[in-house]
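haha ok so turns out i had the wrong file open the whole time. this is the CORRECT one, sorry everyone. sequence first:
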Amino acid sequence: MSNFQYQGENLTCENLEIDSITRDLETPFYCYSSKKIRDNINKYKNNLKNSNSKICFALKANSNIELIKIIAQQGLGADVVSMGEFQKALKAGISGKDIVFSGVGKTQKEIEFAIKNHCFQINAESLSEIKKINEIAQNLNIKQNIGIRINPDVKPETHSKITTGSIENKFGIPISEVKNLFNQSNLFENLNFNGLAFHIGSQIMKLEPFEEACKITNQLVKEIENNDFKIKTIDVGGGIGIDDDEEFQFENYFNLIDLYFAKKDRMIIFEPGRTIIGNTALLISKILYIKETEDKIFVVIDAGMNDFMRPALYGAVHDILPILKSSSIEKKTIEIVGPICETSDKFLTSDNFQNVNEGDFIAISNAGAYGSSMSSNYNIRPNIAEVLVNDKKFSIIRKRQSLEDLINQ
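then structure:
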């Protein structure tokens, strides 16, 4: 969160006091740092500058068109899981030749769109899907690159709802079946079996699960290539976590990928989402009410689980910062909650939070990933505004949805 710091008592984004934005804009709203986005991208680019690689930003993490334009301008491709995401990537300036299409449930219309728009690689997750892609490609008279997404049966230490590489999950094809698929590849005349793909989950802070997946995949690569097939791409997915207190070992991670997969004639595909956008944003909210009970103090804010779903859905913990810092600490337990009619609509419980008052503003940290992209109109609440800060200025990159438009839908 290096681009969000206190200058005196004021929390700032880059060189702009966030309090000044609240004077012009109704809360809640998302506040992004443009510099932090570029810094995060450069962490990948600097580590991969001597490698044959493609960095594809995972649009599911955040699909704001203005943010994707910044990412496109930095030379990144896109990882998409729907036709809508594919279209947004194209609109933002990303070529179809730099887009990887992932996901277990692609429709015929989506596959047709991807092939017609020169999709670099479609990651297939079942034999049925491979047959469907081949049929569509044949009808279009186009030969399409596919990657076979494998399920390495790796169980990282993360929330059960965001693990994707275990055999119990719906994702990928079991290792035991993959060699047979390559042996049958001649049956699919309109497909190039380009390579392998894996993704084992999200918010992973340790190297060991990635190394386990790499070992398993590397052994499979050797077995496939021993049968005279060429693995041209290895898609290592994403899943690296962010944490204010723990820095992921990026250099060691890239060295690990290089050790297992690097070859001059093989491309390694990375699909970062959270590590590009997660720590670039705060969710700014206003304190509506303070309700004291015998055991705790409820601080009711105007942001709800419809605006930021992760704490309610995953039990995710995000630090919360006051916009104006004080040294006075509340002696009771504070629970910061939203206005939605659900008990799960809460953001933080703390025994060490400063004294706050009704009308004060707070900032929920690390809200750039799976924040706005997972937001909804639950309780007939409008989608909130998003702003982008560049040094001392901010611009609105998504207007607050009008209640009138929402009601008329």
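The longest strand covers residues 281-292.
again sry for the mixup
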